[in-house]
Amino acid sequence: MIAANIESHLQQVRARIQAACARAGRPPEQVALIAVSKKQSADAIRAAYQLGQRAFGESYVQEALDKMAQLTDLDIEWHFIGRVQANKTRQIATHFDWVHSLADPAHARRLNAQRPADAPPLKVCLEVNLSGESSKEGVDPADVADLLAVCDALTGLRVRGLMTLPAPTEDEAVQRQPFAALRNLRDRLATPARPLSCLSMGMSDDLEAAILEGATFVRIGTAIFGPRPYN
Description:
Keywords: Pyridoxal phosphate
Order of helices and strands: HEHEHEHEHEHEHEHEH
Cofactor: pyridoxal 5'-phosphate
Structural class: alpha/beta
CATH superfamily: Alanine racemase
Strand order of the largest sheet: 7-6-5-4-3-2-1-8
Shape: globular
Family: Belongs to the pyridoxal phosphate-binding protein YggS/PROSC family.
CATH class: Alpha Beta
Protein name: Pyridoxal phosphate homeostasis protein
Distance between the termini: 21 Å
Function: Pyridoxal 5'-phosphate (PLP)-binding protein, which is involved in PLP homeostasis.
């Protein structure tokens, strides 16, 4: 039953991505799907993998490590999308391929120092707080250039783009505003040497708006796996 539900949901999400790309005049291959598997079981991840899904997003380090240990036979691309904590940076640097939520120069330096020497640079997106709310994670837009400069000097990291997590709303026009703001910020900061080609934005309820504004990663959990089975 788990596999059957995930198959149906994945088909629906992929169809939504294709339809949104058609509206935006973009090739569907420009948008990568990250299946947000936090609070989901290793069996659910395996079921999605068997249906062709390769990128999975986790927010809690120990939970992710437990599932990674059960799925060592699969060539999963692991994305860390949760809050980066100083006491977890070694595990993140060691076990993940991507970090979408980097917002602190000290965390950047720790991730760089703790990335294994035989591993490729850790791919990162800088999380931007576009709302200005102190309760939200992310770096202020005015400070992104300074954080980029710090990361550019760290050989163990490679900044690939920007990420944001806006406040939820059902109005597509309103949904598009922060996504457009992130794209515009990227366009101002991108250079030939560091094009910031990745925009990680859009979730189950607003993936269409994100794709219309240039998302290259959408992070989808509930629409694939259904409600989280445990807290």
